[in-house]
Amino acid sequence: MKLSILRAFVVLLVAHTVTAAPVEKLVEIVRQDADVVPESYEFGFETSDGTQHEEEGQLKIVGTDSEAITVKGSYKYVGDDGVTYNVSYTADEHGFQPLGDHLPKA
Fold first, then answer.
1. pLDDT of res. 19
2. Residues of the chain with pLDDT under 50
3. Residue 106: what pLDDT?
4. Could you tell me which residues come within 8 angstroms of residue 40 by beta carbon, excluding any fewer than 6 positions away?
5. How far apart are CA 58 and CA 91, in angstroms?
6. Angstrom distance (rounded) from CA 32 to CA 47
7. Which of 10, 52, 63 lies closest to 29, judged by CA?
8. Residue 46 pairs with which residues in a beta bridge?
9. Cα(49)–Cα(77) distance, rounded to whole angstroms?
10. Nearest-angstrom CA–CA distance, 99 and 74
11. Which residue, of 65, 78, 89, 99, is most buried by count of CB atoms within 10 Å of its CB?
12. Alpha-carbon distance 43 to 61, whole Å?
Protein backbone atom coordinates (compact mmCIF):
# COMPACT_ATOMS: atom_id res chain seq x y z
CA MET A 1 0.00 0.00 0.00
CA LYS A 2 2.76 2.47 0.96
CA LEU A 3 4.62 1.63 -2.23
CA SER A 4 1.61 2.32 -4.49
CA ILE A 5 0.92 5.65 -2.74
CA LEU A 6 4.59 6.57 -3.15
CA ARG A 7 4.48 5.60 -6.85
CA ALA A 8 1.34 7.70 -7.37
CA PHE A 9 3.01 10.65 -5.65
CA VAL A 10 6.14 10.31 -7.79
CA VAL A 11 4.04 10.09 -10.98
CA LEU A 12 2.12 13.24 -10.01
CA LEU A 13 5.31 15.05 -9.08
CA VAL A 14 7.00 14.16 -12.38
CA ALA A 15 3.88 15.07 -14.38
CA HIS A 16 3.63 18.43 -12.62
CA THR A 17 7.34 19.15 -13.13
CA VAL A 18 7.19 18.30 -16.83
CA THR A 19 4.09 20.40 -17.51
CA ALA A 20 5.07 23.32 -15.28
CA ALA A 21 8.69 23.67 -16.41
CA PRO A 22 9.10 26.47 -18.94
CA VAL A 23 10.74 25.47 -22.19
CA GLU A 24 13.56 27.82 -23.05
CA LYS A 25 15.02 27.90 -26.50
CA LEU A 26 18.25 29.48 -27.58
CA VAL A 27 17.81 32.45 -29.87
CA GLU A 28 20.66 33.78 -31.97
CA ILE A 29 21.06 37.07 -33.78
CA VAL A 30 21.18 36.26 -37.50
CA ARG A 31 21.33 39.85 -38.80
CA GLN A 32 22.26 43.12 -37.16
CA ASP A 33 23.08 46.43 -38.78
CA ALA A 34 23.24 50.07 -37.79
CA ASP A 35 24.11 53.39 -39.37
CA VAL A 36 24.42 56.38 -37.06
CA VAL A 37 25.29 59.87 -38.27
CA PRO A 38 24.93 63.21 -36.46
CA GLU A 39 21.38 63.97 -37.64
CA SER A 40 19.87 60.51 -38.21
CA TYR A 41 20.19 56.81 -37.51
CA GLU A 42 18.96 53.48 -38.80
CA PHE A 43 19.18 50.05 -37.24
CA GLY A 44 17.77 46.60 -37.75
CA PHE A 45 18.12 43.09 -36.50
CA GLU A 46 16.65 39.64 -36.95
CA THR A 47 16.88 36.65 -34.64
CA SER A 48 16.67 32.93 -35.31
CA ASP A 49 13.15 32.74 -33.83
CA GLY A 50 11.79 35.09 -36.51
CA THR A 51 11.81 38.30 -34.48
CA GLN A 52 12.64 41.36 -36.59
CA HIS A 53 13.00 45.04 -35.76
CA GLU A 54 13.74 47.97 -38.07
CA GLU A 55 13.90 51.62 -37.01
CA GLU A 56 15.06 54.97 -38.30
CA GLY A 57 15.21 58.36 -36.64
CA GLN A 58 15.75 61.83 -38.02
CA LEU A 59 16.40 65.17 -36.34
CA LYS A 60 14.09 67.92 -37.48
CA ILE A 61 14.32 71.66 -37.03
CA VAL A 62 18.05 71.17 -36.45
CA GLY A 63 19.97 73.84 -34.57
CA THR A 64 16.95 75.54 -33.01
CA ASP A 65 15.29 75.45 -29.60
CA SER A 66 12.54 73.37 -31.25
CA GLU A 67 14.94 70.64 -32.40
CA ALA A 68 13.25 67.24 -32.10
CA ILE A 69 13.59 63.70 -33.36
CA THR A 70 11.04 61.74 -35.35
CA VAL A 71 11.19 57.97 -35.33
CA LYS A 72 9.47 55.35 -37.44
CA GLY A 73 9.89 51.65 -37.38
CA SER A 74 8.37 48.22 -37.18
CA TYR A 75 8.85 44.93 -35.42
CA LYS A 76 7.41 41.46 -35.57
CA TYR A 77 7.60 38.42 -33.36
CA VAL A 78 5.91 35.07 -32.85
CA GLY A 79 3.86 35.03 -29.65
CA ASP A 80 3.47 32.14 -27.22
CA ASP A 81 0.20 31.38 -29.02
CA GLY A 82 2.06 30.76 -32.31
CA VAL A 83 0.66 33.90 -33.95
CA THR A 84 3.03 36.33 -35.68
CA TYR A 85 2.43 39.85 -34.40
CA ASN A 86 3.38 42.85 -36.56
CA VAL A 87 3.63 46.38 -35.19
CA SER A 88 4.57 49.53 -37.04
CA TYR A 89 5.01 52.79 -35.20
CA THR A 90 5.96 56.43 -35.30
CA ALA A 91 7.17 58.60 -32.45
CA ASP A 92 7.31 62.36 -32.71
CA GLU A 93 5.83 65.48 -31.13
CA HIS A 94 2.48 63.63 -31.09
CA GLY A 95 3.85 60.77 -28.96
CA PHE A 96 4.33 57.07 -29.61
CA GLN A 97 1.77 55.78 -32.12
CA PRO A 98 1.78 52.00 -32.66
CA LEU A 99 -0.35 50.24 -35.28
CA GLY A 100 -1.09 46.52 -35.38
CA ASP A 101 -4.08 44.30 -36.12
CA HIS A 102 -3.98 42.97 -32.55
CA LEU A 103 -3.87 46.43 -30.91
CA PRO A 104 -7.02 48.28 -29.85
CA LYS A 105 -8.11 51.13 -32.11
CA ALA A 106 -8.68 54.61 -30.69
1. 53
2. 1-6, 8-13, 17
3. 75
4. 56, 57, 58, 59
5. 11
6. 9
7. 52
8. 31, 52
9. 8
10. 9
11. 89
12. 22
